[in-house]
Amino acid sequence: MAAGPRVLVTGFEPFPGAPVNPTEWLVKSLTEEPPVDHLEHVEAFRAAVLPVDYAVVGPRLSELGRDFAPDVAIHFGLADEASGFRLERLARNRFAADRPDNSGALRDAGQVCAGPDTLDSGLPLQAIHDRLAEMNLPVEWSDDAGGYLCNTVFMLSRAKACESFAPAISGFVHVPLTGDKPAHTLTPDDLRAGALAILDLTCREWRRLHSI
């Protein structure tokens, strides 16, 4: 039997206007308590925080590709207007020119990388939507991941535009700020549980495609 997938989860550090980023917490949680018992037939797992820096994020993905070579990459990011897990269907090959990154840099409007205008997510989104709904976790659809670093990473990952970073399956999920309900739609426990469900279903999809 072939080896299972090498699985990467990413989140982001805080950024201007968001001094707390729940995806940074998620990465820390998955690093401290890796989901090895939750995921079957996985060869290796890693979670990493990505920089909110246009000049650095691509090289960081390349570094992860050289060091870890993920087969599956699930990227999480913060959208404070989201009402739950926001499943991003399309990566758009464009920058926004109006939001500085953590270094203060702005990107001119234009393409993120060579390639088509849009690329579909590689995640099994309908299965993920149904599972999260069954878990009574809020979930919604989106066809626009924005023009900031979240969409940049989504496009770079789907286009395999970073040297050595070429996951067979990748996609992006936005989440809201977390905290105690009812002030927030997700608690930290909800965030971790939903992320584990997304991981499980995506690994199942990888195994289906590879007949494992």
UniProtKB/TrEMBL annotation:
Keywords per UniProt: Cytoplasm, Hydrolase, Protease, Thiol protease
InterPro entries on file: Peptidase_C15, Peptidase_C15-like, Peptidase_C15-like_sf
GO cellular component: cytosol
One Pfam assignment: Peptidase_C15
GO MF annotations in UniProt: pyroglutamyl-peptidase activity
GO biological process per UniProt: proteolysis
Domain of life: Bacteria
Similarity comment: Belongs to the peptidase C15 family.
Official protein name in the record: Pyrrolidone-carboxylate peptidase
